Amino acid sequence: MKKLFITGVFIWLFFFPVTAQVTSAPFYLWESDSIPFSPYIDANHRVTFRLHAPQAKSVWVKSLACGLKPLEKDEEGIWTYTTPEPVNPECYSYAFIVDGTRFIDPANAYTTYSYRVRYSMFIVPGPESECYQNNDVPHGSMTRLWYPSQAVGHERRMVVYTPHGYERHKKHYPVLYLMHGFSGDEEDWPEDGRIAQIMDNLIAQGKAEPMIVVMPNNKLDQDAAPGYDRYGWMMPPMRNFPRNGDGTYEKYFPEIVDYIDHIYRTVTKKSGRAIAGFSMGAFHAAHLSKLYPKLFDYVGLFSGFITKEDENKSLVYSDLQGKLARQFAIPPKLYWIGIGSIDSGINGAQKFHTYLDSLGYSNEYQEVSGDHSGYTMRKEALIFIPKLFKK
Amino acid sequence: MKKLFITGVFIWLFFFPVTAQVTSAPFYLWESDSIPFSPYIDANHRVTFRLHAPQAKSVWVKSLACGLKPLEKDEEGIWTYTTPEPVNPECYSYAFIVDGTRFIDPANAYTTYSYRVRYSMFIVPGPESECYQNNDVPHGSMTRLWYPSQAVGHERRMVVYTPHGYERHKKHYPVLYLMHGFSGDEEDWPEDGRIAQIMDNLIAQGKAEPMIVVMPNNKLDQDAAPGYDRYGWMMPPMRNFPRNGDGTYEKYFPEIVDYIDHIYRTVTKKSGRAIAGFSMGAFHAAHLSKLYPKLFDYVGLFSGFITKEDENKSLVYSDLQGKLARQFAIPPKLYWIGIGSIDSGINGAQKFHTYLDSLGYSNEYQEVSGDHSGYTMRKEALIFIPKLFKK
Predict the structure, then answer these.
(1) Contact B55/A224, CB-based, under 8 Å?
(2) Are residues B148 and B293 in the same domain?
(3) Predicted-complex ipTM score
(4) CATH at A49
(5) Helix (H) or strand (E) segment spanning residue B146
(6) Which domain holds residue A75?
(7) Do residues A147 and A268 both lie within one domain?
(8) Residues 6+ apart with CB under 8 A from A284
(9) Among residues of chain B, what percentage have pLDDT more than 70?
(10) B140: closest chain A residue by CA
(11) Are residues A34 and A119 in the same domain?
(12) Which of A377, B131, B202, B264 is the one with CA 20 to 30 A from A102?
């Protein structure tokens, strides 16, 4: 123990000041190799990516923060690219392409995850990204738990956010059911969606009501996110696609609501429940809310919609107009449709919005800047969640 | 939505059978590039690492599974190394060294994390690694939560495992407080330590009692693991070292026990509490158990120990013999010292064991194969945890 302490302090005292002088931005040592600090965000929000790769012939960085850009090598073999202009506040993912092979940044332990692919990540601070950061605000809890599913006959995994104070106060909380997209799993909202940070910040700012957020895995062929299920490490990533869209998930969805109402202190009525999702999750939210018109008073379709074309795939999807009529007979307090401004599905979302309007069903339609990605998904959450459960 | 479904199924149907024929081991496509399946574990437990890097001049893999080994390039630019012999069942971490730069495997989304460094990981199945896998057994829950700390005047993060059924049954559970090492944080046991899998499997096998496991961050200069604290992404990794070992963490530790007893259904007596830790966590467990002789009936030092040399650093560490005398006046039911067979601290652990013996204080000493690493830490947990809370 003692030896470890001394060695650690020694490394810290000895190397940090030395390496800090190598360039204008901080450096540190790792595993006896010098790894440059990357990414480095300066006071003007210019971002510097760095990679120590003396033998590489080309290094590129790919990110929404900068596009696809070549890094330049210095005499020590450190490749660098600095954005010429400040980068907009946002939570960014990126990767390096080193001699044609894609890697995450070895200097950056912070990654995000989307269905078997890891990306390096960083946040450029500012008003637009404030809700994605870990700020000095009261924090809620994030629980990974398993629920018994009659749909598949075994347990399945979900992630649940409970707001700050849930453990100590005895009050009951409303619940938002929040679903991932086609290529995702129950870790999408917690990781790429930064839902814990979004909820903590929105609640602390007084913009959102304290609520529970339930994030199930909405692919019945998975018990859980890859790496947490029984299939281990060796399954091809796309094995689970066929069973989506057959209506089974929607048919059994009330088992999730029942379980949550059983184990959490929830508001067990329509006015205390919201359902939303991104892309395929929006598809599920739309079908679930009309299939169970008494369950959800708030509906959010993030970058997704439904059409008559799915009607013959399952009884769950059949009779779109009739089911919508039953849903809007006791209309939800909010039916919100969001879509990215450059999402290729924008026409479909507009059409669904117009279709609802034509039937006289009150709904809100909002375009946010962005494509069909996690960036847009987070922006939609930031708009939708403050609208929920207001007195 | 519909377009996404069709595209996905199309990719799946079209590419998977094709790519599966490229080599004897399965391949898959990703992001329009062909990424070879890696690592691939065959039926005989030989492990194949693969990297598509046509322009690289050398690729090495580093892992306890194989040592440091060069990969060989084929005509398609895919580098491969296959272990000549079956690899022992274990949960392994590894990295590639490509032309001298360390990267994790871009084909493998499964990583483990140890204080700002990510490693790729895989499990070779077998009896010795069975408890590290996600098996088809009842699962407990893992909660990331924050507790109000008087020690620092703000909230700090911990991870809590609750056993299967906790949410639905009304019984009270014993608690193991389990602490990370010097270079770790509260994510060490959940990630590298695979504690959720270990607990689920040991309980399902009837080897361990159902219990709550509390994993605090035991570095007071951190609120939380890097990436979850207020300091964001840009801090050098070793900023937090100076405040370890000054006794403050131990002095305020009862605030953690009080909080857990307040928000969970715990057995609130000595016979229902265990404390253990790895390396620096063992140091804390030893000091905490003697500082609060009425709190813990089970003590586990994993690859760590204490000595008289720390006595003058803090009142918490002073009077080692006197405090041990008070602790063993009402002796704990178990005082267990584990150490890796090739840990450089083995002499210190043996000495502390002999010291306790010389004073007539009952303790168990056990060497397990391994060095001062997460591999040994997990083995120690597998031995220690089944000894707890037996009637």
Answers:
(1) no
(2) yes
(3) 0.90
(4) 2.60.40.10
(5) strand B141-149
(6) 14-125
(7) yes
(8) A179, A218, A249, A250, A253, A277
(9) 87
(10) A145
(11) yes
(12) A377
